Amino acid sequence: MMFGKVKTCHSAAADPRPAECNLVLLGVMGCGKSALTVKFLTKRFIGEYDPYLEDIYSSEEKVDQQPVTVRVMDTCDQEGPMNSERYLSWASAFLVVYSVDSMQSFAGCQPYLQTLALHNKTPIILLGNKLDMDRYRQVSRSEGERLASRFHATFFELSACQDFLSVQHVFYEVVRRVRRM
Ligand code: GDP
Ligand code: MG
């Protein structure tokens, strides 16, 4: 009888998963990019954050027992995806954010998706933020899901002001998606 060799696991040294993950948050002003960034990095919700601040933050994380340096670029575009060069080649993944209580933010995130679809094959995650504002919802969950599937994006709804673990879960899922590339 003949047996093929079954590959069961590989050693850590040969692990091809990248140890770095550069995440870029995109979306119109006010959708909560900075609040999500700060929540992920500090576990705290900061209600008022300089709306014109754009910066890159770095954090050492462990996702599924594997260390990874997660860098987060919290962008601030005042006119949509005009000068996207600064992040297009840098990113390991894009988190395109809108706010579920704002149809304007949902419309405003679509030019970003179109730009990304034209320029790269990096994973895209569509995030409906401000889930705590469900009472004032203007964008249904299924509208979000439909838009995500049009752009082959993973979809989540979340809230920057609710529990830290649900925000961390989303960022970790993004890292997992990058590792599967
Ligand atoms: P950015 O322009 O995309 O960086 O948006 P900010 O993070 O500065 O947030 C804009 C406003 O929305 C601020 O007043 C935040 O306090 C508020 N905000 C952000 N995330 C949430 C959220 O999940 N729920 C609620 N209720 N407000 C939020
Ligand atoms: Mg901001």
Could you characterize what this model shows?
The protein is built from 5 helices and 6 strands; from the N terminus they run βαββαβαβαβα. It has a 6-stranded mixed sheet, sandwiched between helices. The longest helix is centred in the middle third of the chain and has 17 residues, at 103-119. The radius of gyration is 17 Å and the shape is globular. The protein is an alpha/beta fold and 181 residues long. Bound molecules: guanosine-5'-diphosphate (GDP) and magnesium ion. Magnesium ion (MG) binds at residues 33-34, 49, 51, 74, 76.
Q: Mean of residue pLDDT?
A: 90
Low-confidence stretches: 1-12
- Computed CA radius of gyration, to the nearest angstrom: 17 Å
The profile of the biggest β sheet is: 6 strands, mixed
The helix/strand series, from N terminus to C terminus, equals EHEEHEHEHEH
How much of the sequence lies in strands comes to: 15-25%
Strand order of the largest sheet: 2-3-1-4-5-6
Total of helices: 5
What is the approximate shape? globular
Question: Which structural traits does this protein have?
Answer:
single chain; 181 residues; alpha/beta; 6-stranded mixed beta sheet; 5 helices; globular; binds guanosine-5'-diphosphate; binds magnesium ion
How are the secondary structure elements laid out?
Elements: E1 20-26, H1 33-42, E2 55-63, E3 66-74, H2 85-88, E4 93-99, H3 103-119, E5 124-129, H4 141-150, E6 154-157, H5 164-179
Parallel strand pairs: 1-3, 1-4, 4-5, 5-6
Antiparallel strand pairs: 2-3
The structure holds guanosine-5'-diphosphate and magnesium ion.
